[in-house]
């Protein structure tokens, strides 16, 4: 069973997360399969850019709590997106939670529709947005990141655009994407790779500096008693013990 649906048209390869049974959660198989698909795009001269999207009403629900990927594997996936020598554009028409926001923030351009919503839910589970901070914090307004990291509140596409988490909020995502994809098709492969390296330099530096420490911190939090209670409560659809 494939978890990534791939299509190609006029230089743009579309990779759709296609795991509706768990709301496109980041399972170990999905992370591996997406990484392999991106690697193929990197080596294919016919691919000018990648359009990352999803099937169903959720772009990505975050880590698959029943079968989470190794933190190092997820870090490698986000870094692959950041360092791919071709632009990666996110097309978001559904919900994005927790680790899914790291995947979204790793993309170079993101266009979001009115039906999308966003939440950093980690603190409510006894966790923290540790490894996803590497692509998220260089992109997002610091005051907004502080609020949403700490409270886990949901916010909409307009707020995601205001805070820098996505590039643009649009009523018609495909209409908004048309000039973006046209611009990418008109740009040279060398020009795109060199330009992307300039605009992703700060994000790449965050990975260089923090990957090892934040991967270890993520693993430690997942193994903690509070996280076990938070994840168990989530799966049992109840409040964790610490809720006041």
UniProtKB/TrEMBL annotation:
SUPFAM superfamilies, A to Z: ClpP/crotonase
Pfam families: ECH_1 (PF00378)
Transmembrane segments: none
CDD domains, per database record: crotonase-like
Protein family per UniProt: Belongs to the enoyl-CoA hydratase/isomerase family.
Cited PANTHER family: ENOYL-COA HYDRATASE, POLYKETIDE BIOSYNTHESIS ENOYL-COA HYDRATASE PKSH-RELATED
Annotated NCBIfam families: PRK07827.1
Protein's name in the database: Enoyl-CoA hydratase family protein
Species this chain originates from: Streptomyces mauvecolor
Phylogenetic lineage: Bacteria, Bacillati, Actinomycetota, Actinomycetes, Kitasatosporales
């Amino acid at each position: 069973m494939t978890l990534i649906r791939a299509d190609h048209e006029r230089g743009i390869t579309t990779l759709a997360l296609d795991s509706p049974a768990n709301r496109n959660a980041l399972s170990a198989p999905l992370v591996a399969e997406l990484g392999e698909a991106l690697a193929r795009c990197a080596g294919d001269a016919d691919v000018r850019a990648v359009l990352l999207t999803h099937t169903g009403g959720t772009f990505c629900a975050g880590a698959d709590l029943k079968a989470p990927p190794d933190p190092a594997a997820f870090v490698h996936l986000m870094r692959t997106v950041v360092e791919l020598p071709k632009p990666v554009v996110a097309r978001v028409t559904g919900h994005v939670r927790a680790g899914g926001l790291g995947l979204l923030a790793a993309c170079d351009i993101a266009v979001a529709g009115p039906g999308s919503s966003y939440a950093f839910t980690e603190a409510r589970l006894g966790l923290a947005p540790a490894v996803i901070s590497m692509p998220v914090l260089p992109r997002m307004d610091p005051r907004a990141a502080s609020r949403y990291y700490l409270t886990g509140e949901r916010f909409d596409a307009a707020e995601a655009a205001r805070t820098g988490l996505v590039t643009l909020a649009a009523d018609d995502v495909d209409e908004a994407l048309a000039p973006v994809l046209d611009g990418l098709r008109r740009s040279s492969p060398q020009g795109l790779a060199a330009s992307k390296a300039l605009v992703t330099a700060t994000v790449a530096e965050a990975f260089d500096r923090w990957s090892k420490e934040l991967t270890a911190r993520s693993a430690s939090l997942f193994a903690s008693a509070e996280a076990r209670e938070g994840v168990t409560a989530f799966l049992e659809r109840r409040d964790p013990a610490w809720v006041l």
